Amino acid sequence: MEKSQLLRNLPKIDELLKEPIVNNELNSTMRTIVVEALRETIDKYREFILSNNIEEYSKEDILKSFLELLEQRNSSRFRKVINAAGVIIHTNLGRSLLAKKALDNVVNVVDNYNNLEYDLKKGQRGSRYSHVEELIKKVTGAEAAMVVNNNAAAVMLVLNTLCKDKEAIVSRGQLVEIGGSFRIPDVMNFSGAKLVEIGTTNRTHLYDYDNNINENTGVLLKVHTSNFKILGFTEDVSLEELVQLGGEKKIPVVEDIGSGTLIDFSKYGFTHEPTVQESIKKGVDVVTFSGDKMLGGPQAGIVIGKKEYIDKMKRNQLTRALRIDKMTLAALEGTLKYYLDEREAIENIPTLHMILSQKSEHKKRAQKLKKKLQGRVKNFKFTLQEDYSMVGGGSMPTEKIQTYVIKAESNKFSPQELEKRLRENKIPVIIRISNNEVILDVRTIFDKDFDVIADAFGLLD
Ligand SMILES: *Cc1c(COP(=O)(O)O)cnc(C)c1O
Prior knowledge:
Elements: H1 3-9, H2 13-17, H3 20-25, H4 31-50, H5 59-74, E1 82-83, E2 87-89, H6 100-110, E3 118-119, E4 124-125, H7 130-140, E5 144-148, H8 151-163, E6 167-171, E7 177-178, E8 182-183, H9 184-191, E9 194-198, H10 206-212, E10 217-223, H11 239-249, E11 253-258, H12 276-281, E12 286-290, E13 301-305, H13 307-315, H14 318-321, H15 326-338, H16 342-348, H17 350-356, H18 359-376, E14 380-392, E15 395-410, H19 415-423, E16 429-430, E17 432-434, E18 437-441, H20 450-460
Parallel strand pairs: 1-16, 2-14, 6-9, 6-10, 10-11, 11-12
Antiparallel strand pairs: 3-4, 5-13, 7-8, 12-13, 14-15, 15-18, 17-18
Helix pairs in contact: 4-5, 6-15, 7-15, 8-9, 15-16, 16-17, 18-20
The chain binds pyridoxal-5'-phosphate (PLP).
Pathway: Aminoacyl-tRNA biosynthesis; selenocysteinyl-tRNA(Sec) biosynthesis; selenocysteinyl-tRNA(Sec) from L-seryl-tRNA(Sec) (bacterial route): step 1/1
Enzyme class: transferase
EC number: 2.9.1.1
């Protein structure tokens, strides 16, 4: 057909709006978005014609293009992905998944008015922190607690409250960077505290702290080196020694414990990570940790310790800018409730369950997924093999969790190409490449997503 004829035959928007397919979309999508998608679709066909890319088209083709475009527009930018990488606390993929009670609590609280800052006993203004403070005190053994936006904010608040224009003494071995954006020295600068670095990268002694204490010292700070280990000729001052020194000199000891596990993982065969309860028991004045790492809750920063210090923080104006929102608070409360019984926590908090679930369980699950995949596609080879999952999130950096994974091989795609294709799936599947092999680690995959993965491979077969 002639170009000019093809152009003339392009349907008008008004005309397309009368099509049942389009009209039906108006039930669920705003009219402006539908009209815009129609216009863009027609424009696209006009360009195709002008650049001699097509010689004919039907109205059905145009409607199909329109529906594809609309679906793209309607899908959220922020959406579900499948973590097949086997990194449990994957910071890029949203860290910890919420447990059931946490989810339910969020929905109940935000779908209704709530007592966020209302004291129902007294019938007057209340504190948003009250909803979790008792629970945190109970599970950690601390005298007082409060929560802010994240652990970076918690560290900043503590230093700003206790150490503004004063000196914070910290070991050179603990000046850590976490995830590229959190650097202890930078956070300290923002807080107004002056950093006094002591010792060396690998060795710091008690006398290093003692020798640097003066009338302007605000805190003794200990940062848990959560994402790396220094091995070999090393020496670090124990918390006990630091607490004793702080007590003698009347200087608060602050610990950023990072991941903040409430469970002693050494009971389950892992190397011992310091727990929050241990730090409190040892007499540390203030401890901060994250809500969405080993705790397995929402993004939050938890500050616990001596009541006099926590009260000061609650009064600090900075708290207003760092404050936690109601959805997070609801999720945190729901998560913390499980910790009243450790078995419940391990069973129900996804992060904990994933870390502690057994290799034998994942062997069975990997076999099930492999079967599904083999049933769906012909041009891939799937192999069950032993491998390791990682905790991630800068937690337990040296811990390798034995597991079973599926290796996927294809003649058609290189590992890199396959990784990309799976990532571009409608529900993105994020795998890991190790030793130039595509690996699917079932530890971080839900059974309910096995079919989605099989479908994703099916489209590539
Ligand atoms: C992860 C981490 C932080 C930052 O915590 P966020 O909750 O991500 O803000 C701070 N300190 C340490 C030691 C950490 O491991």
